[in-house]
Amino acid sequence: MAGLISCEFEVFGIVQGVFFRKHTQQQAKELGLRGWCMNTNDGTVKGVMEGSPDQLRKMKDWLQHKGSPMSKIDKAVFSGEKSIPEHTFPKFSVKH
After folding, report:
1. Which whole-number Å values give the CA distances from 19 to 24, 54, 80, in the listed order?
2. Which partner from 41, 49, 55, 75 sits 20 to 30 angstroms from 3, CA to CA?
């Protein structure tokens, strides 16, 4: 698979206690992304995603504008975007 990109993300707003991580994992799986997400002590959800530029673009849009049904997203911040030669994660998982 050519053109893999890795990107870190952090989502701010009401994103804990609203099944945000579960829905993020589900969405990432549907798009074929790999990586992980977890709750932070600051009340945000952060993680890493890996996939094609198109897959990442769709996931960024989802993280910024959609999220889980009960979440209220204030903003999503993306950082550390870089090309990678191959996947570093076997799937998209939720860290606890």
Report:
1. 9, 25, 26
2. 75
User: Which among 13, 6, 29 is positioned nearest to 86, based on CA atoms?
Assistant: 6
Q: Which of 21, 34, 41, 57 is catalytic?
A: 21
Active-site residue flag, 21: yes
Q: CB neighbours of 53 closer than 8 A, spacing ≥ 6?
A: 3, 5
What is the Cα–Cα distance from 32 to 39, expressed in whole angstroms? Answer: 22
Residue that the structure tokens 């550390």 belong to:
80
41 among known catalytic residues: no
